[in-house]
Amino acid sequence: MHNTLVIGTQWGDEGKGKVVDLLSERTDIICRYQGGPNAGHTVVLGTKKFVFHLLPSGILHSDKMCIIGNGVVIDPQIMEKEIKMLAEGGIPVEENLKISGLAHLIMPYHKLLDQQKEMKKGSGKIGTTMKGVGPSYTDKIGRMGIRVWDLIDEHVFMEKLKANLDEKNFILEKYYGLEPLSAEKIFDEYIVYRDNMKKYVANTTKILKDSREKSLSIIFEGAQGTMLDIDHGTYPFVTSSNTTIGGVLTGLGVPATYIDNVLGVAKAYTTRVGSGYFPTELIDETGNMLRDVGAEFGSTTGRARRCGWLDLVVLKYAVWINGVNSLAITKLDVLDAFPEIKICIAYDIDGERTSEFPLDPSITGKIKPIYKTFKGWQQQTSEAREFGDLPQACREYLKFVEDVTNCRISLISTGVERNQIITSGLKEID
């Protein structure tokens, strides 16, 4: 197996965690390259359910190396909880987890500022998870962030912490009317995290460079989805990092030639959490049914997800932006009970038909989805283990997705369990 990027092609929550867990069985290194604890990847292993916000989904394979790259912003408290969760589940990480010393830290003031800023916006909320991710990236770009290497050195850490609090406390007191934060209290808390974390800290760029010489295979695991990319997503209702293919290069320090395959993950329908436009959203009984059957509630926030039909305009855009050469379709079983299923094939904008995703935000409110209607298969697909086991109507639905996106389907998930997967009868991932 070559180096594969597993990337979300919608607004996140596509089921990337299960796909990465599956592919991890035949790879050597799994890398997380962007995002923070605002993402949630869920993997079900027998009777155990693991939800990861920071650790790569491949961490369940104790013989695989897992890397958190410099492009990730780390909340050390959440990381500690995830490591403890794994230890309680009998899964050690001491030998296979590596953290880039260049990764930035989420500090208590980041989370507080995130919460206050979102609440102050009222009806204009972005829909942030309020985990401090955005403010941490803001400090990174503003060249005042605190990195993991800074935490290792107590003197550097305290110096940078005090410098940050001079500004942050002014904003918290004068703008939000809150009590100032104590540098000493934060220092004492984070030094404990430091002592627990420092054994994992490494030059991960060198590890990845050496992996090519050793002919090791890599999975690059993204958080969120293409439509939440800070540059190419539905701005301003996006995340604070590059969720698309470019984020791999900057978030891990690897050349573009390291990416051999790009596997795009898409639900058989579409969901979105938070604010922002969503052309195929169904605010009706059908949308409610998709949410209830699909258990569409955020793994990070618990919020109900907005649900709608599969949008091929969005999917084609994601295929192009990321250079996707195969697709993984997840949650196919959620559609089993529907007598009629629709796919958005184009948009009507002021009477003009287009199959290109519009980038001008001034016209997004004018989008009317144009649908192709399929007869539902109304048969259970969760027991299918080969493509030929699927109902004919279901196979036609999937074949249509392949034809319109010009992208082959190499994997189909038909349930939350690890073994509810179809690869047989499909073209294998190269």
Task: Compile the SSE list and pairings.
Layout: E1 4-8, H1 16-24, E2 29-32, E3 41-45, E4 48-52, E5 65-68, E6 73-74, H2 76-88, E7 97-100, E8 104-105, H3 108-120, H4 133-141, H5 148-152, H6 154-174, H7 183-197, E9 201-202, H8 204-213, E10 218-221, H9 246-252, E11 261-267, E12 270-272, H10 285-294, E13 306-308, E14 310-311, H11 312-322, E15 326-330, E16 340-349, E17 352-354, E18 367-375, H12 392-405, E19 409-413, E20 421-422
Parallel strand pairs: 1-10, 1-11, 2-5, 2-10, 5-7, 6-8, 7-9, 11-15, 14-16, 15-19
Antiparallel strand pairs: 3-4, 12-13, 16-17, 16-18, 19-20
Could you give a quick summary of the protein structure above?
This protein is α/β, with parallel strands linked by helices and 430 residues long. The chain has helices at 16-24, 76-88, 108-120, 133-141, 148-152, 154-174, 183-197, 204-213, 246-252, 285-294, 312-322, 392-405, and strands at residues 4-8, 29-32, 41-45, 48-52, 65-68, 73-74, 97-100, 104-105, 201-202, 218-221, 261-267, 270-272, 306-308, 310-311, 326-330, 340-349, 352-354, 367-375, 409-413, 421-422.
